[in-house]
Amino acid sequence: MQRVLVVGVTGAGKSTLARDLGRRLGLRYLEMDALYFAGPGWAVNERLVEDVAGLAEGPRWVVDSLGYPEVRDLLWERADTVVWLDYPRRVVMPRVLRRSLRRTVTREELFGGNRETWRDWLSREHPAWWAWSQFTTRRREIERRLRDPRFAPLHAVRLGRPRDAAAWLASL
């Protein structure tokens, strides 16, 4: 396990697991949203493909994302392991709601200096709405990729519950 993607739906805990996995295995942790969002107003990094390609060339890393469409194949082709947090909606939705509520109330600074606001909750782009609406689509995308012959060399770890993830991480 040298180049690892931690994938799952919004709110599954990808960043937390990827960060912990990086510490445990001495892998460089790459936070995809921090690479994607470049500035205020949720501005997108115009150099995303170049930045991710350069980082993915590194020998040892863990990324907390399926990958944005622009870099998805690049990451999957360079990874050697995919860890899928395949949690049910009943687990994911309370997590994403608590996280967004905390971020909104505390005005926590996020990627590119952005913050979640009360107004954002009305947008289909808000993490809570996104997690709900993209749940099935995201799961199908991950399943499709894991069956794709291009990615057959990848070692896949599918974890269905948070306690499974904790036990797997502790076993490393």
TrEMBL record:
Keyword Transferase in record: yes
Keywords: Kinase, Transferase
SUPFAM superfamilies: P-loop containing nucleoside triphosphate hydrolases
Bilayer-crossing regions: none
InterPro entries: Cytidylate_Kinase-2, P-loop_NTPase
GO molecular function list: kinase activity
Gene3D superfamilies: P-loop containing nucleotide triphosphate hydrolases
Name used for this protein in its record: Adenylate kinase
